[in-house]
Design goal:
Elements (H helix, E strand, L loop, with lengths): L2 E4 L5 H12 L3 E6 L8 E3 L17 E4 L8 H14 L4 E5 L11 H10 L5 E6 L11 H7 L1 E4 L11 H13 L6 E5 L7 H12 L4 E4 L2 H10 L4 H15 L9 H6 L6 H13 L2
Parallel strand pairs: 1-2, 1-4, 2-3, 4-5, 5-6, 6-8, 7-9
Helix pairs in contact: 1-5, 2-3, 6-10, 7-8
The protein binds NADP nicotinamide-adenine-dinucleotide phosphate.
């Protein structure tokens, strides 16, 4: 029977993908960088390369992505794509990010091109900004000051629920219908951050507003939160792309691949509203 390796299996996308595969009685092996393993897990550290050889034992399909916080995504992905090629996997789904294909010299694009040229069936998925960022990355300002602080002006983003990304990955891993194609993944509509703040407020009952800030005002907070300086600057660069309107486009890829409409922002806030009710 097919065994699927899921990288970053405890993350936003990976955990839901594992759930979907197991619910469908498919064999899954969860990669983790942690040393203490639970049943169904295998050790694989993309930075130190520990576990690289054993993680692919008996595997025929794989979901690959780079953990956040790194700007050298191709360095992290090169060995796993190489292993997938060496093991002649039946399908590899690589997740990068919307816009990754704008520049052939960018690390994410280099990883995509390595996979495109590996001679094995693949898909590349490029999600837009996750809805889930509002209860993770941007949560500190929301909980402490009731504010979403971002340097993105009035620009809109077609935010996607990471659970829909997992549904897409599940469909692509378990079917060959769309093999060797790449997809930009978005939610069904684009919202600006005033609209986001309104929806968070309405669902949680806590007053949340959006405050446009300058990139240089955001930088100290990113650094004091422990982000490496190069990644903090990378984040500010892609937030500037958001401000310039590059995150506004809406695609029909989620529906085309899964047969279901992407979750709405209202659906997301309803499911997670307890997170913003904390003080
Ligand atoms: N957030 C967004 O808006 C957005 C938009 C587009 C694309 N993306 C892309 O999404 C990816 C992140 O996905 P996500 O949000 O699902 O992940 P996530 O929730 O941030 O989880 C990160 C995962 O990385 C694993 N990890 C950490 N260090 C590792 C290492 N050294 N080796 C192997 N695994 C390691 C962690 O698991 P263990 O602790 O078990 O190892 C964890 O499961 C990034 O590549 C980012 O560029 C994000």
């Amino acid at each position: 029977m097919d065994k699927t390796l899921v990288i970053c299996a405890s993350g936003n996308v990976g955990s839901e993908l594992v759930r979907l595969l197991r619910a469908d009685h498919r064999e899954v092996i969860e990669a983790t960088s942690r040393k203490e393993l639970k049943p169904g897990q295998v050790h694989l550290n993309l930075i130190t390369k520990e576990g690289m050889k054993t993680a692919f034992d008996g595997v025929s399909r794989a979901f690959l992505l780079s953990p956040p916080g790194h700007t050298n995504q191709h360095e992290l992905m090169r060995p796993v794509i190489g292993m997938a090629q060496e093991k002649k996997l039946n399908k590899v789904v690589l997740m990068t990010a919307m816009g990754a294909n704008a520049d052939d010299t960018s690390p994410m694009r280099k990883a995509e091109m390595q996979l495109e040229n590996a001679g094995i069936p693949y898909n590349i998925i490029r999600p837009n900004w996750f809805m889930q960022n509002f209860h993770t990355f941007w949560m500190d300002g929301i909980l402490k000051q009731g504010k979403i602080f971002l340097p993105v002006g009035k620009a809109k983003g077609s935010f996607i629920d990471s659970r829909d990304i997992a549904s897409v990955a599940y469909s692509l891993l378990t079917s060959d219908q769309f093999s060797n194609r790449d997809f930009d993944l978005t939610g069904g509509r684009a919202l600006d951050h005033d609209e986001v703040a309104y929806l968070l407020t309405r669902a949680s009952g806590k007053k949340i507003t959006y405050q446009d800030i300058r990139p240089d005002e955001m930088l100290p907070g990113l650094l004091s939160a422990g982000l490496p300086a190069d990644y903090a600057h990378f984040l500010l660069m892609i937030l500037n792309y958001f401000k310039l309107g590059y995150a506004e486009a809406v695609t029909d890829s989620v529906e085309k691949i899964t047969g279901k409409h992407p979750r709405t922002f209202e659906h997301y806030v309803e499911d997670y509203k307890n997170m913003w009710m904390k003080s």
